[in-house]
Structure formats: C-alpha cells, structure tokens
DNA sequence: GTGAAAGCGCTAACAT
DNA sequence: ATGTTAGCGCTTTCAC
C-alpha cells in the first residue's frame, strides 16, 4: 500500500515517466493507444498524482485563488458558486481558502501564491490597512472584493459597495417613513471595518434630516459572541429592550443580527412591524423566509463577483490599470417596516 | 519580485540552507543567535516557504484531513469549529476540503492524502457505497462522520446518528400529539442517502401507530432547486398547499426545508402551529430564531465531532479496531407543534 | 552548531 | 512519439 509514483506506473507500463505524465495531463503529443494503455493501468492501480510535486514543478498554473477572511460567513459563502462559475467560464482553475479573522491574510496570500503558483488572487472580505503599500509585495495581481480599507486606493483594484452611502440610504428610508427614534445595532465597540462605515452612514442620514444623534440608541455587538451572528443580535437587542429606551425602528447592520433582533422583539411580546420596524443589510436569502420578510438592502453579489473576476483576468492578461468599482445596493422592500405618524 | 527561496535567505545570511530550514522550523539544534539573525532576515524580506516543496519532502505531517461532501452545507459548517478545536487540542494540524456533490470523494481523498501526507482522513457527509471495500485502498485511517452508507460496516469506523430511528421518533411524537395526517417533505425522488432513511422512519412510525401510509402526503424535493434548501421547502410546500390535501402537521426532514415551509404556510394565510404543526430535523441554530421557534431533533454535533476525532486519533496511533458509534438526537420542543383533539 | 548533498514526485526541455 | 534528464524548493541525513 506504499504510495504509487509516476515511476511505478512507468515501470509497469514499460514506458518513460514523461509518457505517463503526458497521458495523465492530456498532452496532445502522445500516441492514443499508448495513452489508453497507460490510463488503464493508472485506473487499475488507482494511481493519483502528487499535487505537491506537480505544483512545485509547474510554472504556469492558470489558477486564481480566493482568500476569504472569516470562516462560516454566510454572506461570502453565498458568493462562492458565482466565483466558481465565473472563473471556470473564463478558463481558470480556482482554489478557495478560508482563514480565521485573526489570521494574517497577507502571509496567507503569499503562501498560497507560492504553493499553488497562483496567477492572481482575490481577497474576499475583511479589512486591510493601506493595501497600496502592504500588498505591493505580492507577485501577482490581486483584487479586493468587499474588503474594507482605511485609505483611498490608487494601486489596488477593488470591487464592492460604498457601505457608508448604502447605510445612509437605509436610515434615510426609515426617516422618510416617519421614524425619528431609530436604534442601530452596529459592530463591536472597536470595529474599524464595514461596521464603522455603516455607522457613519447612519449618523450622516440623521444629520441631513435634522435628527439629533442619540448615542443611547447605538447598540454595540458583544465581543464574547460571534460577530454578526443571530446570537449576538438576540443578546444585545434583548438587553436594549429591557433598558426601556424609546424607539420605533431598529436598523441592524447585517441581516443575521436582524434575525436575532426579531426573536428578542417577539420575546418581549412585541410585534414587527406594528410595534417596531426592523431593517437589515446585505440581502441574504434567508431574509425572504423571515417572518415578516425583512426589509433590507441587497448587495448585488453577482455583479460584484463578475467584476472582480473580470478585473483579475484583465490584470493577469497584462492590463495593470487599477480600478475601483462601487455598486449600488438594491432596496428590498419587504414586510418589516411600517410607515408611522 | 521573483519569489524568494530558502537559498536566497541562506545566501543573504551567509549560512547553509539547512540552517535556515532549522530556523524557520523551530528545530532545537540551532544556535539561538543564528536563529534570530535568520528570522530577522526572513521577516525583512518577507520570505514565505513554499508549502508544496515542504509537503513533498516531509514524511511526517501530523495532519488530519476533513473532506466535506457538499459546499455550503450549513449543518456541516456548524461542525467545523468543533473539528478545529478537537484536532488542535489533540495536537494535530488539519485541513478542510469541500467538494461538490458530484465529485468523487475517494479520488479526492487519495489526492489529499498524497499531497498533504495526511495521517488520517475524516469524511463528512455524503453517501459512500460499500465503504469497507471502496475505502480499503486508502493508505491511512479514516472515519465516516455522518456519512450515509448502504451496507453494514465491518472495517470502516463511523460516527453519526441512526436516521431511521430518529425520524421515527419525530413522527411518533407528532402522533402522540394527536396528529394523524402528517405530511412529510423528503429528499428528491431518488435519494438513497439520509433522505431515504428518514423516510423509512416516517413509514415505520405510522405503521406502529396503526396509521395507514398515504403517499399523497409525501412531498418530494424538486431537483431543479438546491437540495435541502429553504427555496426547495418553500416551492414544494406551496404547491402542496395548493393541492388542498388535508393534513394537520408537516415534518420536513431538514430544518431549512421547514423554514421554507413556514413561509409557504404564512403565504397561504395560515398560522403555525394553530393551523399546521411543523417539525424539522437537525437542530441547526437558526431554528431558535424562527418564528415560532421550530420543534426539531438536534444532532449532538459536539459528541459526533469529538468521537470522530477520538477514533481517528486512536487509529492513527495504531489501534485499528473499527468502531461504529451512533448517538441519539435530542428532541427540542419549541413552539411549532400543537397538541390536537 | 552548521553545511553539503541527496532526493521527495513531478514536468518540461531536450534528445532521439 | 517517446525516453532521458535536470531541476522545482524544501528537509534531512551525514559529515565536520
């Protein structure tokens, strides 16, 4: 049961290793009969090539990596199928890698690039500081897809939405529906990524509508529960309801938080939207199945993915122009918001 | 920007490659000063070792692989964190790999084993025919974790639940609550995996309680929608409701299907549980946040994961006894079932 | 404590 | 069309 190598197959078939290599890699310059004979043996002995050896040797991989910050993030996971499809259609192989929030995406990216000889890499999610500088040392083109950054980008391509602006849209919508006391479930206290941007949009919308910002309506996620989870939304909303603060609407900066908030509100014996209107952010599929269906803004993930792939391919093909593309979200009016007054 | 190799670092530091290797791998037999000097250079030049080369050379990996059948399966994803924790605690590295439903797990397993020099592999989910035979050629120990099989296992270790029995439990519970006309949302028409087993439990529970099986109450998932998804549950339940069949409870063989069914029922202007009781299967977290919270059976994922890891470690350590462990689910009585009559 | 050198399994020149 | 061979970048004896 010792692992078979290409040499073993070559010996068994009485051919050279390169011929075996040609057979298993669909190389054109090989006699079809020889090929078939070899493949039969490969099949019979269940020979499986060692990818490490192949990766080590191969110079021209044709593979694009997708490096996802955060395991188990439903929003990003909903994009995987699109990435697969787009990359496949463009003739690229792909490899996904999910890393934990506390892992360093830059190191991981470099490791992936070397290990798999990537042609390009797409960063999905997370927060990268000064990408123009920190990512400059990558050997291959990269695209930041829904990645939060703290600087204006010049050299780094990016695709996503403007979180501040879209957040503004939500709050403005609630205000237009007559809401003045709008609670908001934001990130953890020191969230400098999307949570912060969405919070900023909230504040600006209030200001523009002449509503004084009341920080007692700001609900921070707990740091002892998973970020952006139902459990976190439930915990903080339950607590907030107990505080007795007056409000007519609550805006959760992620749909799953809203789902948790729903339960907290029901537990308190209140009704949505009659007692409290609720809005979310992201537009994940589950919002349709919530009861009542959650009014939210939907990120155009198909467009975001397609553009990310388009850019990485252009860059791989030599066009190193960096582009920053922002898409608008779509306001999905469902049943969780009521007009008041 | 050409990729740095260990040779480059060695040259820069004026040492041999093996010394660099020792430095980056925390090898004990190295002068601490030399080590520090090398690591400084490594840091400065952002040298990242090539994992393919390392994997190729290394014989003793200490890595366990987890091969997941099905991308984006929320039930399995909820187990990842536990796997990580258990394996880490046991001193093993791990690597996850998700493959599509139509990919061959056996081939993929062999490739993984070779590429990463795995010490053992855990199959998560899916359906494997005749594992005793088909998996015999793997070079390393393996455990089937929540994998459906069509034979009695002798050589293959497995951990999971008895789907038939647990399904029986659910239906029996509904019957004890007075329900006689119980619709069931099952797998696609030719599902030979867990869907089939759960269906069998449904039938047996009816029989044992003297209720005649009525196949017009069996609702098959559509094959043009994702398996076990909210969308599928919604679509088939909507259709079923239109048919006007009489029933008082519906049992969905997966929680997400139940979530879809909820919406279908609401859309029809009916109430849960007053008009229809609903039960699910799996006990994923979201069931707590559904409205009303879904009564379901919860798979003891912590136990399942822990036992899987324990077994693989024992087998790796030389104890090749094969074990088949079945856990009971926990009936989580929430608010979606009402007693009738 | 450190360096030289062999070789992991494969692919890609280069011969033939 | 096929075989021989050189290395990809690393770890690991084995000398020193």
Features:
homodimer; four-stranded parallel sheet; alpha/beta; 12 helices; 434 Repressor (Amino-terminal Domain); 341 residues; elongated; 41% helix; DNA-binding; six-stranded parallel sheet; Rossmann fold
Could you explain how this protein is built, in words?
Two copies of one chain form a homodimer. The first copy, chain A, has 341 residues and is an alpha/beta fold. Among the domains of chain A are: 1-60, lambda repressor-like DNA-binding domains (434 Repressor (Amino-terminal Domain), Orthogonal Bundle); 163-299, Response regulator (Rossmann fold). Helix content of chain A is 41%, strand content 16%. Chain A has helices at 6-13, 17-24, 32-45, 51-57, 74-89, 105-116, 131-134, 163-176, 194-208, 230-243, 255-267, 301-316, and strands at 63-69, 93-99, 120-124, 127-128, 142-145, 148-149, 157-161, 182-185, 218-219, 249-252, 277-279, 296-298, 324-327, 330-332. In chain A, the strands form four sheets. Chain A has a six-stranded parallel sheet, with helices on both faces. Chain A has a four-stranded parallel sheet with strand order 9-8-10-11. In chain A, helix 5 links the parallel strand 1 (63-69) and strand 2 (93-99). In chain A, helix 1 (6-13) packs across helix 2 and helix 8 runs parallel beside helix 9 (194-208). The longest helix of chain A is centred in the first third of the chain and has 16 residues, at 74-89. Chain A is elongated. The mean pLDDT of chain A is 94. The interface between A and B is large, with 45 and 44 residues. The structure holds a DNA duplex (16 and 16 nucleotides).
